């Protein structure tokens, strides 16, 4: 067992219990067991690696003096009690959000865990090669009202969950994209959506070799333009080469066409665009988000997905059957997951549920054919 001097220093358990205000806090305490219900903490025969209870004393037995800590998937191998029962009695330091867990004072969405004076933090949110979240990390909090639902009930629940958001101006999108699409190998660059090229953040604007702001759900489909709302929503705005963006225009998405000279791997024809394989699923999930977030109840058009590739100015994007296939064929990768987390934690305070739960696409629109 380590001593307080050996471990990193955080607030006491009592202080965090008294300050459940949704802020980011760091707490130091002793692992005393695993919570399984509001007033139940087991001290042996641990059923999972999902949670632990901290107290200011290693011998504490009153649950009223314990803080229930959610263990994100990235930390379960090192701190879960089912895998590491010998951790009971160890003093650790955890950083996370001070908010209820199991309807009890808690710390959720942890970003750093340490023990024996050394830090174990595999989830640097600025490192897209090591994403900070998995789908289960927000199930007991952000998505709790959607779990177990299907079809229309699920769609309604997701719409209600993701609608509250911090809305950006179109000028602010420049800064947002430089953050969300940062090249993990070069913090001075962004990764362009269609080319996959790493280009300087500063090289944005309208020049031939610049990058600009691509509306993946074409802004003319529903005529929302660059208005604050769908026109400035980072969940579907990506950096793209100016001339490639122009070539895509407002086309719907489908398979087939001729190669795009400046963006190898992309194809296009008169009415559709096929992106490179590495971002097919990303595009599908961005469009799915837009269709669920914008339902026509906030002054904008009701956006939807359909089977057409000739939608023009109608508030639709196709081709749905192809998008479902892309969602299945190209699951969320580290870059996409990190992007979702950065938008949620630093910019809009809402998430794309189809990145966290790609299977929800099937529940809403059916299986890929």
TrEMBL record:
PANTHER family named in the record: ENDONUCLEASE-1 (PTHR33607:SF2)
InterPro entries per record: Endonuclease-I, His-Me_finger_sf, YhcR_N
Protein name: Endonuclease I
Highest taxon of the lineage: Bacteria
SUPFAM superfamilies listed in its UniProt record: His-Me finger endonucleases
Residue ranges constituting the Endonuclease YhcR N-terminal domain according to the UniProt record: 12-114
Source organism: Psychromicrobium silvestre
Keywords noted in UniProt: Endonuclease, Hydrolase, Nuclease
Biased composition annotated in UniProt, kind: Low complexity: 118-137
GO molecular function terms attached to this record: endonuclease activity; hydrolase activity
Region (Disordered): 112-140, 250-273
